[in-house]
Amino acid sequence: MRALSKQLLQVEIVKIAKKWRPEKRKLVFDITFRVLPVITERTVAIGEAFGLGVDETREFPIYRRFELEIGPRDIVYITGPSGSGKSVLLRALKEELASFWPVADMEDVEVERGVPIIETVGANVNEAIRLLSLAGLGDAFVWLRTYDELSDGQKHRYKLAKLLETDAQIWIADEFCSTLDRDTARVVAFSVQKLARKLGRGLIVATTHTDLFYDLGPTIYIFKGLGDELSVRYRPDMPVHSCSLLGQMSFGLAKTASERREGRALIEKWHYRGRLPPYKRMFIAKRLGHVIGVVLFSPPYVSCWARKTVFKRLPSLRELNTWVYTASRVVVHPLYRGIGLGSALLRRALLASDRPYVELVAVMARYNPFAEKAGMVKVCEKEPGRAVEEAIRALEALGIDARLMASERYCLNVLSRMSNGDITILKEALRPLRLPGVMRALLGVRGPYPRASEWEKAIDEAGLSEIAKVLSALAEAKAKKIYLIWRNPNIPFGNCPLDGLLKEEWRSKLLRSVASHEEN
Fold first, then answer.
1. φ and ψ at 103, to 5 degrees?
2. What is the pLDDT, as a whole number, of residue 5?
3. Residue pLDDT, tens place only, 216-236
4. Which of 243, 313, 254 is nearest to 283 (CA)?
């Protein structure tokens, strides 16, 4: 048989017709694939066997006079089987819409490798934390990882954080969440649409998966079948307030030893401090039989810098122990972050409290208003106290970098190079500190209020590893924190002595908060 010439397969879009109207963009598509012949020995054999003309150009229409009305804030969900033409439509939309509004594609996001992601987003550290938290990466451990160390779901969220830096009005994503497990896909879908709606942006995604409808809440739903099969459904813009996974969760007090054990393990693994403080109550969220979120209510702090802002006089220790809890830990499994579980869990825990008042002092509350969303009232922000600042200055004079002090390994490495005289000076700098968290790091858990006499003795006897633990706890104490307070609406005002101690301004704010709870 004579040698046959080979031609490359080509797929061409024959026609795209478009028509715009001023009030809303209306696009009319005719898209046809043209497949040019590829002549080989085998294709000729197939043509001969089946009576096909293999040297003929073939055309396959996939969109016939397809009309789509779309605006800059629409949430568009394109689904259908592989090979049906979803990506073709997405590329055509991207090209045409870019003529009217800035468009950004998640696949075009540039990724910096080999450096912590906190270094690659935002103009400064505060902006970086804000952007990453908005995208659902509100975890201090994650901020210190490189892009390649992130899970697939975290990589999607990181790219979203990078999109937030652009001026794009419309975000586009092909094969959206296709490589993710379906729970993570639902979480990411919910987070992306929530952020798009909050910022007034448009979102267009294409995927073979049809299970994201609830969490995306699309205003335009396009199902593209094989051939020219096509359906379009327009829906009113109705914000999706909760992820579908929240409906599969249960909330309540940890009642069994197994639940408490799982709750402790969650805190120790996923809280940025990891240490388990003494607590009175553990409130949990469960899904599929496993604990996925924990709130601990602990005895109140002996002293708290912000109480003088709220109360006319400081409550006595007996009053605090009778009427107040401290929400000492609020932890959510990383898979479920960014869907509002933290605030939902804390809200339910607060309403289940058996005390009138709950306080919360937290660093994360500066960047993520989960406690305020749960109904707590923000009072003020606190800089480190004078005793802490004086101790930090003394430690820095000895060669300790306060920025790295949270790492026990770093502290132990520096301490091991110090002379005995310097260690003595260091202990004297730590001795005046009377912060329960710092003292507990050395004394262990011996009730909620470590004794000063025990602290003094333990400082004198402390070895290098014990001192390293104290320095790490001091790093937490020096961080800027937010103080919030909450009044239980299930306990009438006037039934607690602390109600009479409230300053009028804060009495009014807490009463409004109570009224808001009752309305909800």
1. -125, 140
2. 41
3. 999 999 999 887 788 999 999
4. 254
Cβ 175 vs Cβ 206: under 8 Å:
yes
Burial 26-51 (b: 16+ CB within 10 A, else e): ebebbbbbeeebbeeeebeeebeeee
Q: Checking phi first, is residue 285 left (phi over 0); if not, alpha (psi -120 to 50) or beta?
A: beta
Q: What are phi and psi of 292, to 5 degrees?
A: -120, -5
Return the closest-CA partner of residue 337 out of 196, 188, 203, 192.
188
Q: What strand order describes the sheet that includes 25-35? A: 11-13, 25-35, 58-70
- pLDDT at site 262: 97
| pLDDT number for residue 10 | 44
Amino acid at 126: N
At 399 the three-state DSSP class reads coil
CA distance 352 to 10: 65
Which residues in the chain show pLDDT less than 70?
1-23, 35-37, 51-58, 273-274, 445-449, 515-520
Structure tokens at 180: 């993710």
DSSP state of 499: G
Cβ–Cβ < 8 Å for 359, 297: no
- Contact yes or no for 462/327 (Cβ under 8 A): no
Token pair listed for 182:
């379906």
State the pairing for strand pair 25-35/11-13. Answer: antiparallel
| Beta strands per DSSP E along 83-240 | 103-105, 170-173, 202-207, 220-224, 230-234
Q: State the pLDDT at residue 7.
A: 41
Residue 126 tokens read as 């505060």
